[in-house]
Amino acid sequence: MVAVFLSLVAQFYLPGTGFTSLLSIGSRLDERAVEKLRAVPHYAIEDSWGYDGTYYVQLALHPTLDQPAELGAAIDNLSYRARRILPSWVAWGLGLGRDAWIVHVFAVLNVGVWLLLGWVLLRWLPPDRWSNLLRWAGVLFSHGMCMSVRNSLADAAGLLLVALTVLALERGRKPGAVVALGAAMLTKETSLLAGTALIPARGSGAGAWARAVGLGALALVPFVVWLGYVRWKAGPGNDPGLGNFTWPLAGLAEKCGVVLAELAVRGAQPEIVGSALVVIALITQAAFFFLHREPGRAWWRVGASFAGLMVFVAQPVWEGYPGAATRVLLPMTLAFNLLVPRGRRWLAVLVLGNLSVIVGVNEFSAPPHECFVVSGESAVRAQVKLEREAGWYVAEGDGWRQWRWSSGRGELKLVNRGLAPVAVKIDGEIAGLKAGMVAIRAGGVAVWSGAVGAKRAAFTTKEFLVPAGAAVAVEFASDAPGVRFANGDERMLAFAVYDVDIAVARAEPAAKPAGEIQPR
Predict the structure, then answer these.
(1) Exposure of 53 in the CB half-sphere (CA atoms within 13 A)
(2) In whole angstroms, what is the distance from residue 456 CA to residue 496 CA?
(3) What stretches of 21-142 show up as alpha helix (H) in DSSP?
(4) 218-232, 358-372, 505-519: range with lowest mean pLDDT
């Protein structure tokens, strides 16, 4: 199971940007990101707003909120996001305060959280029976957990700290439980509900209740102090958190209505079926806590508290395919898997409650990689900057190949920032929707031309030079008109290029001007 998880994560590694695709930074938000993030090479989802990890990694670069104006312009609601500061502090510490290290550490932080949680769960789910394996996987491969790892969100770390809180209580280490619970609240504010684990056993005297209240208050102190600091640095802000709650069951009812309506209109599309599976799983989990009462157990109190939270969760948390509810309710998922009784009688309940695993693994679909890649000796690569110009559509991929479509004319620009000329040769594959000729020109000089059809064919350009301190435009142009599909795709597609390698090397001493072809 661990090997499967690591292989899924490995898909997100890209040369030059590491695992930063796990941050889900969108190119539209990237343009107004803090300067420290813009200075670190990272993956950005093209023509997208990205997801919340974009905000939290910027907090890791400014963990004391030392630039509130810059952060306020880069983060949608600074005072709201800054509450969940602990993962950012951890990334800053592990990154030793170095910007590039911090960004890369934050991207893989939840991979470490996943592994640690998997180890902690062995305390309750030892690998001595198949049902424990099912429960273990039901937590770690749940949609909420996978979504948190895939998008570098705080929910995974919050769940780990909630688990450590209960583990410390079970071992009689109340100071450790206070520390873990306080850390959990600094990671995800809804972890406050895990404070129900501190409730003393039925029949306990006033002294036990007073101690429990005191422990809860101690755990709350760091969070309250940090909230005060955030308000001082960033102001009160406009808190969207309140919009995440509504009248009892209103959000869930709306989600069910949307899923049923879309099934009726669009049929069993994968994203709609996935939403339906998630709704079934969460309803099963919540129903278990409402109908199977064990208030004497700390995990039941935690699970029941989050089942109660589910009742009040509003549509903004449910919306999407399948939505964010799975990660918000992760402690309920963990408690469910620990408490469902053993035996065949409960197998159906256990399976229904873990249906989100089917959807969770899909979160690890590899991101589209850039199909234009500069290769060569590292020192030479460092002096060449590739700029993608007009004429290309969004990058696509299938896990094996990466490509971009063009409507008929696409441009690149190669900028040589070094003090010596660079020799360049481009190769890859090309295909077109209609038969035609495609020509590649560098600096206005033809370096390749050939017939292009529906079947992919390899191409290799002649070598050309980019002088020191200069830029050369590379143009791909087809004589075949673009075609628009009848499936609703509005793009005009003429040809696509696949896995284009732009090999750069030190030029021969007798280098020719930009655009001229080197003799071979």
Answers:
(1) 31
(2) 9
(3) 27-30, 35-38, 53-61, 68-74, 78-81, 86-94, 99-121, 130-140
(4) 505-519
Any idea which residue has 């880069």 for tokens? 74
Give the residue from 41, 45, 12 showing the smallest Cα distance to 27: 45
The secondary structure of 143-159, three-state, reads: HHHHHHHHHCCCHHHHH
Collapsed DSSP state (helix, strand, coil) of residue 352:
helix
The closest alpha carbon to 122, from 140, 108, 145, belongs to 140
Is the preceding peptide bond at 322 cis, omega within 30 degrees of 0?
Answer: yes
**At 251, which helix (H) or strand (E)?**
helix 250-266
Give me 68's structure tokens. 């509130």
Which stretches does DSSP call E strand in 334-383? Answer: 372-376
Find out whether 25 and 33 touch, Cβ atoms under 8 Å. Answer: yes
Residue 369 clears pLDDT 80, i.e. is over it: no
CA angle (407 as vertex; 402, 412 as ends), nearest 5: 65
> Does the pLDDT at position 507 exceed 90?
no
Beta partners for 50? 25
**Mean pLDDT value across the chain:** 91
The full DSSP string for 255-281 is HHHHHHHHHHHH-S-HHHHHHHHHHHH
Q: What's the whole-number mean pLDDT along residues 222-240?
A: 87
- Angle at CA 242, nearest 5°, toward 236 and 246? 165
Domains contained in the chain, CATH given = 2-364 (no CATH), 372-506 (2.60.120.260)
What is the distance between the alpha carbons of residues 200 and 214, in angstroms, rounded to a whole number?
Answer: 12
| Cα–Cα–Cα angle for 191, 195, 200, rounded to 5 degrees | 160
